[in-house]
Amino acid sequence: MTSTAADNQLSLLRRLWIYQAERFPLFKTALLLVVFTAASISVSAHLGRRDLPGVWTFAVAALVALIFFFQMRACDEVKDQEDDRRYRPERPVPRGLVTLRLIVGLAFGLVPVAILLSVTLTPWLLVLLFAVWVWLGLMTAEFFVPDWLKARPFLYLVSHMLIMPLIDLYVTASEWLPHAVFPPNGLWLFLALSFCNGCVIEIGRKVWAPESERDGVETYSRVLGPQRAALLWLGCAGLALGWLIAVGFAVGAPLLIAAIGVAAFAVLAVVVIRFVTAPTPKGQKQIDALAGLWVLVCYAAAGYAPLIGGTP
Q1: Rounded to the nearest 5°, which phi and psi values hold at 149?
Q2: How confident is the model at residue 311, as a pLDDT?
Q3: Which residue among 101, 135, 207, 227 is least packed, with the fewest CB closer than 10 Å?
């Protein structure tokens, strides 16, 4: 898609609507984050042996998480602007649908919103709010060693995916921090799950069929080959499954959570076997879609299974 005179005649709201559809699908992202934040709060309350908090806590956690993810998208636009201009000119910013200044301005404009929302729960939540933003800033600067880091894709992956448990720490803190100085015992298991699931999402969107590879786009399938990249993705999901089962024991619903996790993992395994046998664009799309569904299932199982079949 290229910039057209018709694009330039669109209203700002219409251009932003097109931007979100292409780069930040609002409804899909919001659905995933509502499940993620609600599950995180539920796990935190279960581990702390507390009743679930009020609706406002869930709303604040979901809204601030949505702000985090939009700000992550804006930071991606900043650090990828040269590569997008050269290799992906069809994207909204390089083709001129919206300006980088506008997207970054919106991301900064949401800073006071996140601060005000956090303070309504407890001012101490600002410590973790700013911790997420500091790490996001370091990610955007590629930790001040961009060439060195990009030459090591798996270290790059780990350094960037560490923001996921940090975001989850903020989300769970919206439940535990008003009651205690430290997180409940066992929460680290859930944070480890968040890290692995971040890797599942990130790797899943960069496992491509050979004919889909593009110049200037670094994918795990280009680095490892499509078969090994798909197996790496499945391996990350396997690690996530292990942490999910561990969370199940911590919250008192190991059998139900394990059953859900194993069934979902079996679906992933079937898709990967097919892709390894014949790495096609269809299989590539299935892996990308299943990455999101896997994460959704993991958080739903961890957060809601204890409410159904957990032990007190």
Answers
A1: -70, -40
A2: 53
A3: 101
Can you give the CATH number for the domain in which 161 is found?
1.10.357.140
| 48: helix, strand or coil | coil
Q: Which domain holds residue 190?
A: 186-312
The residues near 31 (Cβ < 8 Å, ≥ 6 apart) are: none
Question: Are 213 and 101 part of one and the same domain?
Answer: no
Q: What is the pLDDT of residues 42-74, one digit of tens each?
A: 999 999 999 999 999 999 999 999 999 999 999
Q: What is the structure's pLDDT at 218? A: 87
**Distance between CA atoms of 125 and 57, rounded to whole angstroms?**
12
Structure tokens at 184: 């409940």
Contacts of 33 (CB under 8 A, 6+ apart): 62, 65, 66, 69
Q: Give the CB-side neighbour count of residue 129, counting CA atoms within 13 A.
A: 25
Average pLDDT, the chain: 93
Give the pLDDT confidence of 172-211 residue by residue, as tens digits: 999 999 999 999 999 999 999 999 999 999 999 999 999 9
pLDDT of residue 1: 43
CA–CA distance, 47 with 292 (Å, rounded to integer): 26
Q: Which of 130, 150, 184 is the last residue of a domain?
A: 184
Do 163 and 216 belong together in one domain? no
- Does 64 lie in the same domain as 29? yes
Same domain, 125 and 51: yes
CB 266 within 8 A of CB 299: no
Torsion of Cα atoms, 76 then 77 then 79 then 82, to 10° = 140
State the Cα–Cα distance between residues 299 and 243, nearest whole angstrom: 11
| Contacting residues for 291 by C-beta, under 8 A, at least 6 apart | 200, 201, 203, 204, 205, 233
